Automatic annotation (TrEMBL):
<dbReference type="GO" id="GO:0046429">
    <property type="term" value="F:4-hydroxy-3-methylbut-2-en-1-yl diphosphate synthase activity (ferredoxin)"/>
</dbReference>
<keyword id="KW-0004">4Fe-4S</keyword>
<feature type="domain" description="IspG C-terminal">
    <location>
        <begin position="268"/>
        <end position="352"/>
    </location>
</feature>
<comment type="function">
    <text>Converts 2C-methyl-D-erythritol 2,4-cyclodiphosphate (ME-2,4cPP) into 1-hydroxy-2-methyl-2-(E)-butenyl 4-diphosphate.</text>
</comment>
<dbReference type="Pfam" id="PF26540">
    <property type="entry name" value="GcpE_C"/>
</dbReference>
<feature type="binding site">
    <location>
        <position position="271"/>
    </location>
    <ligand>
        <name>[4Fe-4S] cluster</name>
    </ligand>
</feature>
<dbReference type="GO" id="GO:0141197">
    <property type="term" value="F:4-hydroxy-3-methylbut-2-enyl-diphosphate synthase activity (flavodoxin)"/>
</dbReference>
<comment type="pathway">
    <text>Isoprenoid biosynthesis; isopentenyl diphosphate biosynthesis via DXP pathway; isopentenyl diphosphate from 1-deoxy-D-xylulose 5-phosphate: step 5/6.</text>
</comment>
<keyword id="KW-0408">Iron</keyword>
<dbReference type="GO" id="GO:0005506">
    <property type="term" value="F:iron ion binding"/>
</dbReference>
<dbReference type="InterPro" id="IPR016425">
    <property type="entry name" value="IspG_bac"/>
</dbReference>
<dbReference type="InterPro" id="IPR058578">
    <property type="entry name" value="IspG_TIM"/>
</dbReference>
<dbReference type="InterPro" id="IPR004588">
    <property type="entry name" value="IspG_bac-typ"/>
</dbReference>
<keyword id="KW-0411">Iron-sulfur</keyword>
<protein>
    <recommendedName>
        <fullName>4-hydroxy-3-methylbut-2-en-1-yl diphosphate synthase (flavodoxin)</fullName>
        <ecNumber>1.17.7.3</ecNumber>
    </recommendedName>
</protein>
<feature type="binding site">
    <location>
        <position position="306"/>
    </location>
    <ligand>
        <name>[4Fe-4S] cluster</name>
    </ligand>
</feature>
<comment type="similarity">
    <text>Belongs to the IspG family.</text>
</comment>
Amino acid sequence: MEVVSAAERRPTRQITVGDVTVGGDSPITVQSMTITKTSDVEGTLQQIYALAAAGADIVRCTCNEIEAAEGLAQIVPRSPVPIIADIHHQYRMAMAAMEAGVDGLRLNPGNIRKPEHIKAVAREAKDRNLPIRIGVNAGSLDPKLYEKYGGATPEAMVESAQTEMQYFDEVGFDLIKISVKASSVPLMVESYRALAEVTDYPLHLGVTEAGPPPAGLIKATAGIATLLMEGIGDTIRYSLTADPVEEAKAGRQLLEALGLRERKNIDLIACPSCGRAEVDVIKVANDAMEAFGEREIPLQVAVMGCVVNGPGEARDADIGIAAGNKRGHLFIKGQNVAVVPESEMVDQLVEWAEFIHEHGTEAALKRADLDKARREAEKDRAKLLEEQGDDANLANEKIVEIRKK
């Protein structure tokens, strides 16, 4: 059974981006950003569709020139998800993007600083019922705030957001979500915590410029997951130096792992391999991930290296495979259901997972010859124990040495 341990979610206002709600009691959403030139309409749309297929609910495109705005006018009507225009420096590009029909804007208060420009954008957005993200970034903080606080601090980041909110408030605009991103995980976490104390607008979480995987994934997850587990955050984006599809996948997988979104695809768990492993667990696990591919089968799948301990250790998995005596032992919720040749392990795993997804666990158990599977599993366990003994990992020797210290 999955244990839910996240704190109660922070209450926020709710806004709508296209047909996607953000904040309030709506599901936490996943965002990413295209890396194509927005003027390349077909290339950008191809990437948007790939992002949507990978789990992105909202996609952002840069709007840094008039050709990009013209591209957005063609992209938005054909996009499968809402499109947000990313605006820096030129407030006129925000106006052009709204004219193009985008579903939302991201403004950087660090480089669009004239109050009259900010208010002009907010008035137009209000007339169009269009949300704006106040996208504060530690790397492009207003120099005056940087000087005032002696650097990019949580206080400086929050003040930047509050100043922008004040300009919006002066024109009666409140369709707002906010981010206070930094490449430093501690700074990012503390900035969002401080911001959550002073506003009830929905928050967009992210560690900016996290870098390439795997280090970038670790950094981004450390920051985003910490806040989500505290109940802070309404939409998320991984900022990786990688194909943006990897960002969408990572965001979706994180929310599924935290129990904050329903699982779309398998959650594969695998043992780290040990002295009992009868197969190359890493290879089998990778082969399984490749075989499941983009199938939307929301099950937890286990790949275990041995039949001695595998089914018991992974008894909570919906389905799993364990190796033993050159055979693969399929198990469902810890019960052995079939024995197949080792060469067919992955194919059978996928086939049974598809059956469970379509017909349910009980139907799968009824399909199986449980007595035969149990007998075969016991036979292979006994053979392995005879060959390897009951301490295949030499743990007892290590315990003896530990006790000598």
